[in-house]
Design goal:
The protein is mostly loops. The protein has one domain: Leucine-rich repeat, LRR (right-handed beta-alpha superhelix), CATH 3.80.10.10. The chain is built from 1 helix and 3 strands, in the order E-H-E-E. A 3-stranded parallel beta sheet has the order 1-2-3, with no helix packed on it. The protein starts with 22 loop residues before the first strand and ends in a 9-residue tail after the last strand.
Length: 84
């Protein structure tokens, strides 16, 4: 599932009801913030997540993703996340 390159006024909360979602691309959603990404916590079956080009995402925003136990693929290119 891919989303348009805008952010909803309420962030990603509308996605939190899609609990069976296994793959999600937020590529290029430049207006998303660390706080918005934390709304993905309920997506416990999510295996693949692309956050490439989410320019406002930093290390701080990854804390919320730690709850995604099924996550096996995470793409973070062109973000402020420091790898290593």
């Amino acid at each position: 599932m891919s989303l348009p390159t805008f952010a909803w006024p309420r962030g990603l909360h509308p996605l939190s009801n899609l609990t069976r979602l296994t793959a999600l691309s937020l590529r290029g959603c430049r207006k998303l913030t660390n706080q918005a990404v934390e709304a993905l916590r309920p997506l416990q079956q999510l295996r693949q997540l692309c956050l490439c080009g989410v320019a406002r995402l930093s290390d701080r925003g990854l804390g919320g993703l730690a709850a995604l136990g099924a996550l096996t693929q995470l793409e973070l290119g062109h973000t402020r996340v420091k790898v290593g």
